[in-house]
Amino acid sequence: MSALDWLGGEAFAAFGQHVIWSDMIGNTIGLAALALGWRRSIWSWPAQLLSGLVLVAAYASAHLSGGIGKQLLVIGVSLWGWRQWQRGKRNAQDGTLAVRFATGRERTVLLAGTALGTLAVGGLFTAVPQLSWNPWPDAYIFVGTLAAMVAQARGLVEFWFAWLLVDVVGVPLAFTSGLAFSGFVYVIYLALVLWGMRDWWLRSRTARTGAERAPLSEGVTA
């Protein structure tokens, strides 16, 4: 039996749902990647890369071409995000990655890009039914994942909001596609997203307050 055959095999069954190895392993690694992202660890990116490689097999077994495309995109963006975090701005206090809220222009670009991208990908999936049996939700998750990863690579708090919006559609789609473990993990993602959102939000406020106080402190010292 080849590794691909094994990854496509059933790991266990519970409550009428059949969980395959690639679905379970890939999403467990993806869960770890999100937790590492919350901790602002650069290891979040290689974990996302590995998760994407394994989940390609999971989506192939479910005949979700859009999901396969999404994971290939995850692999590519993970390499870029890894490089971005290596070069990113650091907090002076502890050397961790500095996070912030997006500017108005950045938010506009993210929202417009996500909307236009979803329309384009959804139109493609609709025109070529072989690519996805559920084109619009698949397109929404495909493009939403890209938007979330781009925001994460730039250290933007909006990264968590993007993942929250992806989860809203991702949970029911995973269950109806027969990827039960993906659906279960998406539920855990939701808890991590809310936790991570709070942490990055507070850290962005702390960094902004410190930046505002710095000139005053320098003036007093002088």
Proportion of strand residues: under 5%
What percentage of residues falls in helices of 4 or more residues? over 70%
Number of strands: 2
What is the N-to-C order of secondary-structure elements (H for helix, E for strand)?
HEEHHHHHHH
The major β-sheet equals: 2 strands, antiparallel
Shape field:
globular
Number of helices: 8
Using only C-alpha atoms, the radius of gyration works out to 19 Å
SSE inventory with pairings:
Layout: H1 3-7, E1 10-14, E2 17-20, H2 21-38, H3 44-61, H4 65-87, H5 104-127, H6 135-153, H7 158-176, H8 180-221
Antiparallel strand pairs: 1-2
Helix pairs in contact: 2-3, 2-8, 3-4, 4-6, 5-6, 6-7, 7-8
Write a structural description.
This protein is mainly alpha-helical. It is built from 8 helices and 2 strands; from the N terminus they run H-E-E-H-H-H-H-H-H-H. A two-stranded antiparallel sheet has the order 1-2. A hairpin with a 2-residue loop joins strand 1 and strand 2. Helix 2 packs parallel to helix 8 and helix 3 runs antiparallel to helix 4.
